[in-house]
Amino acid sequence: MKLGLFGGSFDPVHAGHVLPVREARDRLGLERVIYLPTAQPPHKPGRQFAPAHARYSMVELALLDEPDLQVSALELTPGRTAFTIDTLEHFQAEYPDAELYLLLGGDSFAGLEGWKRWRDIVSLAKLVVLVRPGWEIERTRRGLSEALTGLAADERVHFLANPAVEVSSTRLRELIAADEPVPVGDMSPRVLEYVRKYSLYR
């Protein structure tokens, strides 16, 4: 089984978290992709997030019509920083015959050397680097360290030339807080209804 893993704060989840993952699933033949909302991302210390359970619920709502895209609560333990290497080791133990694929944005790939046991991450999973606004493939490659430049040429790393989805969680939070319209297609209507029901960003 080819199993994709996609972590993030998803605060809130939006089209940029879904459309590129669909493409990765289709192009790489992934049988399932598991989203991993993170209670406290290690690369965002001190930032305040919507409650972890609410971010999990938003991802679930966004993926209701996507049977091959699922969500896991593995990284939602309150007060515990979630590290990718621990998550990979968990899924390796749970699915010993699975081929793991870690999906991440170009910005995350460029900062990979700062991740806990990053070389072990590469040994446990193939990396799928997704295009994000401002992080197109060539720009990402130009800014890499020597070690990551070498890694980028490895067959275990896939740069997926998906179209960048011009939407950000930061901008969506600003619009919602100001009670301004959210552009159609940027968020699942179910997610937007949930956000407004519980006044998550106001």
Attribute tags:
202 residues, alpha/beta, single chain, six-stranded parallel beta sheet, globular, Rossmann fold, 6 strands
Quaternary structure state of the chains depicted: single chain
The outline comes out as globular
Compute the average pLDDT: 94
Roughly how much helix do the residues carry, as a percent range?
25-40%
Q: Per CATH, what is the topology?
A: Rossmann fold
Strand order of the largest sheet: 3-2-1-4-5-6
Instruction: Tell me the strand percentage band.
Output: 15-25%
**Count of domains:** 1
Q: Main beta sheet: strand number and arrangement?
A: 6 strands, parallel
Radius of gyration: 16 Å
Distance between the termini: 42 Å
Order of helices and strands: EHEHEHEHHEHHEHH
**How many DSSP-defined strands?**
6
Number of helices: 9
Structural class: alpha/beta
Sequence stretches where pLDDT stays below 50 over 5 or more residues: none
Which CATH architecture? 3-Layer(aba) Sandwich
Q: Please report the first level of CATH classification, the CATH class.
A: Alpha Beta
Structural description of this entry:
- The structure is a single chain.
- The chain has helices at 15-28, 52-62, 84-94, 106-110, 118-124, 137-142, 146-152, 169-177, 189-197; strands spanning 2-8, 32-37, 69-71, 99-105, 126-130, 157-160.
- Helix 2 (52-62) runs antiparallel to helix 9 (189-197) and helix 3 runs parallel beside helix 5.
- The protein has one domain: 3-Layer(aba) Sandwich (Rossmann fold), CATH 3.40.50.620.
- By secondary structure, it is of the alpha/beta class.
- A six-stranded parallel beta sheet has the order 3-2-1-4-5-6, sandwiched between helices.
- The longest helix has 14 residues, at 15-28.
- The chain is 39% helix and 16% strand.
- The chain is globular, with a radius of gyration of 16 Å.
